[in-house]
Amino acid sequence: MNTSCQSCLMPFSKDPGKRESDLYCSYCFQNGALCYKGNDLKEFQQACYKGMVAKGMNKIAARFFTFLVRFAPRWRKAK
Ligand SMILES: [Zn+2]
């Protein structure tokens, strides 16, 4: 069973929203589709980073979690 988002690696236990998918968190997957449909890890990371900072996370922590995104199953094959 998945315990964290396959796209951004956020642990589901930390997800404040209501998940629609067993694979993705409530940020990555909304209204029946992935929010970021592209295939560009850097672009996705930028969006994650902005989202985290916008939610009040401090920038050092946001940068760390953004770095971890590359290890998510969704992106592992891209590199
Ligand atoms: Zn996610």
Keywords:
single chain, 79 residues, mainly alpha, two-stranded antiparallel ribbon, 3 helices, 2 strands, globular, binds zinc ion
Protein described:
The protein is mainly alpha-helical and 79 residues long. The chain has one domain (12-76). The protein is built from 3 helices and 2 strands. It has helices at 41-54, 59-68, 73-76, and strands at 29-30, 33-34. It has a two-stranded antiparallel ribbon with strand order 1-2. Strand 1 and strand 2 (33-34) form a beta hairpin. Helix 1 (41-54) runs antiparallel to helix 2 (59-68). The protein is globular. The chain starts with 28 loop residues before the first strand and ends with a helix. Bound molecules: zinc ion (ZN). Residues 5, 7-8, 10, 24-25, 27-28 line the site of zinc ion.
